[in-house]
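assembly run, all chains below
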Amino acid sequence: MSTTDHAQAPPPDQADWDEVHGSAEFVELRARLRRFVFPMAALFLVWYLVYVLLADYAHEFMATKLIGNVNVGLVLGLLQFASTFLITWLYVRYAGRKLDPLAERVRESIEGDAK
Amino acid sequence: MRNLAAGVTGNNPGLNIGIFAAFVLITLIVVFRASRNNRTAADYYAAGRAFTGPQNGIAISGDYLSAASFLGIAGAIALNGYDGFLYSIGFLVAWLVALLLVAELLRNTGKYTMGDVLAFRMRQRPVRAAAATSTLVVTFFYLLAQMAGAGGLVALLLGVTNKAGQAAVIAVVGVIMIVYVLIGGMKGTTWVQIIKAALLIVGAFAMTLWVLGRYGFNLSDLLGGAVDAHPKGGSVLNPGLQYGATGTSKLDFLSLGLALVLGTAGLPHVLMRFYTVPTAKEARRSVVWAIGLIGVFYLFTLVLGYGAGAIVGPDAIKNAPGKANSAAPLLAQALGGPVLLGIIAAIAFATILAVVAGLTITASASFAHDIYANVIKKGEASDKNAEVRVARITAVVIGIVAIVGGIVANGQNVAFLVALAFAVAASANLPTILYTLFWKRFNTAGALWSTYGGLAVSIVLIVFSPAVSGKPSTAATPSMITGVDFHWFPLENPGLVSIPVAFILGWLGTILSKDRDQSKFAEMEVRALTGAGAEKAISH
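ok done. output:
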């Protein structure tokens, strides 16, 4: 086995990859993945940038006291933690329900062929 | 009142060394036990892909929570208040990039290194050479920052103040690290990181409870304590203390924020950890565990930072050897006396050791697998063991470079090197990774342009930034070189310019080249999304 090989079993040949790539199941899998991760990535990046810009340029707003010494800046910062945990949980749930079963079906169809 | 400013009063170096020696002894035993199956490349580089997601997640947090984040962030919050907190948010949110866009696809596509993925559908030799170059540069900066930090820590914790003594301690730390990597390979290194992460998180949790307990578990009262102790008073709770002074420093902050959030998913030593698990699903679980642990840990550092500000006081921290880095150790001393200080000191050393070991194995794998096996031997090395042998030799060389670099950089202001490593990773690696995984048209020329372009732009901007020259030695964070001024780029962090430039270069290089191989992309995409033909775990 040369080091540029990418699989341990004899890999399916190129025509197989192309065929799977064009199959309805694979197209659906890719659509489901992209439908979730692209908007979610855009969302958290925008929300992070808004937070950084507020911390950078809106000092007075961030310094507004809410409860005792806890101000808007601290609450927004903690919300960044909360949103990170939330998005992680949402993605794991989505992947478990919508991606994994489909990915497994496609994988079995390929590896079944190769044997 | 006891003079905490001296830092070393009430400190018991013998105790610190004893606790650290116990850590080294235990981890060495674990490393030896883990080293029994370390013959093949998959064993040495990827621990046989046999770690579970949770194990790998703990190891990732061990790799990621370097001395810079533990000591550095706590110190930054103690001295600069809210602006220190912003670092930890960037470091954490960054993991969503890895979770959503990179980890699973990379695990399914590659074998040992970042180069495996980047070169998958490209011409192997040039792209692997580029990936290895960027890996070595990022790892070198990261490594140097860790080793240089060790010097300051030695002064603070072991009471070794002369340069020769510090150099000797740095060398000892380096040699232990080389032993871990040589004997344990990825498996041993991973166990060191798991043990260290557990100690670090438990230690930080205990201190957090202790600090909060002093303030009746009332966060507002703790913040009030930090306000009372700080010369700038209430502004310690607001953003802007460190970065709010001028328009330039505000832009600098934006640049840093961008580099932090986009850098993590391009750090080679983080990426390599995803190969130590058997499947993409385990890679996902790794990231979930890492996000949980890292997030909780940064919440602890918020309390510890303000706690150090309130209980130890910013002036005492500034006057201690190691300055901001001494905030957490001094807090430990104020809370629990020499024993707690000894434990925290040992954890800090363990942190440096574990992170440096992770960096060394990454760099050696990249050199042996990408450069030696695929560029020099063109993927036709007669003997698979030769590659692992080259990796081991490289690890020794890198270890020696780290020791020498740490000794030379000792006492220099190299704190900016960690931020630089993130900026370079975000510029040279992340655009190339994202284009490779998601853009069908992307090709060899584009990969070379974005990797080398991002690397060159970020490094040139750093060299001509105020971080390297131009700031007086009296500044709060003086330049690395004082006395001369050759800076023309106004920002200390290049990310704001270099990241977009790298994305544009990758796009431009691609469309200017006619080269395209869409069926190879079809294969890669099917593999990446389904895990078909992915590297399996090795059972011994």
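Chain A touches chain B through 61 residues (CB under 8 Å).

The helical segments of chain A are 14-22, 24-57, 59-62, 72-114.

not gonna interpret more than that til we talk
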